[in-house]
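Renewal narrative, Specific Aim 1. Our central claim is that a sequence can be written position by position from structural information alone. The example that follows is taken directly from our test logs and has not been curated for this report. It begins with the structure tokens describing the chain, in the order in which they were read.
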């Protein structure tokens, strides 16, 4: 698949393929999340990829570790459209070591990172707790 992240047609094809669970686009989807491009429609596409990635694919430990790295990177930047889908997906995958790392980040000297880490860490208590936090933050 051609990786032009600024091409809306590419983003639509990638999102659709991930939603269908097409095995041949898994690596492209992970690379897309790793690249974290900022252009028209990429937020929607990243949200969609996060939403279906853990539901449609059986992920190996290497891929899960890559997703952990991407999630931790997301704590370093402002919350964007895909943040909550990322939290939901990670909650379905995360192990104790990952949650421990997120817990450590809740004490970050960077208040913005600590706040986002707190939002993500709530998901360690379950999807329902995380979604309550999402609704609370969105309503504020």
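The sequence written for that structure reads:
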């Amino acid at each position: 698949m051609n990786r032009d992240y600024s091409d809306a047609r590419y983003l639509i094809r990638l999102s659709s393929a991930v939603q269908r669970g097409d095995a041949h686009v898994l690596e492209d989807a992970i690379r897309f999340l790793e690249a974290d491009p900022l252009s028209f429609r990429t937020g929607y596409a990243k949200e969609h990829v996060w939403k279906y990635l853990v539901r449609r694919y059986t992920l190996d430990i290497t891929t899960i570790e890559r997703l952990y790295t991407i999630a931790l990177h997301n704590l370093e930047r402002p919350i964007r459209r895909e943040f909550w889908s990322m939290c939901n997906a990670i909650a379905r995958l995360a192990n104790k070591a990952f949650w421990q790392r997120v817990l450590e980040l809740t004490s970050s000297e960077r208040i913005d990172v600590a706040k986002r880490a707190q939002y993500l860490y709530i998901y360690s208590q379950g999807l329902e707790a995380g979604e309550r936090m999402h609704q609370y933050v969105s309503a504020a």
